[in-house]
Each structure stands twice: as C-alpha cells, then as structure tokens.
Design brief:
Layout: H1 5-18, E1 53-67, H2 74-81, E2 87-97, E3 102-112, E4 116-128
Antiparallel strand pairs: 1-2, 2-3, 3-4
Length: about 130
Amino acid sequence: MGPMGRMGQMGSEFRKHIGPIGPIGPIGPIVLRLEALPGRLAPEPRYLPGVQFEVVGEIRGIETIASGHGIHILVRLVRLHGRGNWRKLKGIGTVRFVDGTFAEAELHWFEAHGIGKRGMKIKRLVEER
C-alpha cells in the first residue's frame, strides 16, 4: 500500500457520508435550525425572510454600516449588479405589508452610485401601527 493508500480509503468513506467535497468543505448550504428547548421560548428571528413589503414615504436616520471591501458580499454585488462604490446602509422607515398593515421597521440595504438600492430587507420591527 502506498503512502496515501489508507488515507485515500478513509477519504472516500468520508465522502460517502457527507457528499462531494469542495475546496473549503462539503458542497451545499448548511442549515441550522433554531428550535425551542422544553420550557423555553423559541429565539426571535433576526430578520423577516421572504416577507413581501413596500416602503411608504422616506427612510429616516440613514447610516452607513460598511463600504467597499468591508462588505461581506461585495463580490456577489459586483457580479449581479456591476461595479460601483458599494455601501451597506441602514435606516428607519414605514413599511406596508401585503395584508395591508403598516409598521415602523429598521431596514438594511446595499446601494451604489448610478445603480441604486438593492437587497432591501427588514431587520427588526420598531413598532406596529
């Protein structure tokens, strides 16, 4: 058996259980489920994924969270929308949900000059009306 013989066998066994290996680890999304423990409440979600909403009026208190290479998904933004001076921003705005209810929410989004706002999401609800 060669110097890599036994290691190669262990590697193939490992691949059978977890699937194909990429340069960093298993290929595919890693999903972590947050469930309530007995006698405890489930953790509050950090943002509202997949919620359809519309911003009504102006966004107030706009602050820059990150810019340039400080943005974690900069490569993805450039690939999808083009090159630009990308910034991650946050602010408070009034949103209207599909069911017609209104709420004040903290909004996060990405913006570049000449491209506009992209990837807007609600991070938390400040108050409901």
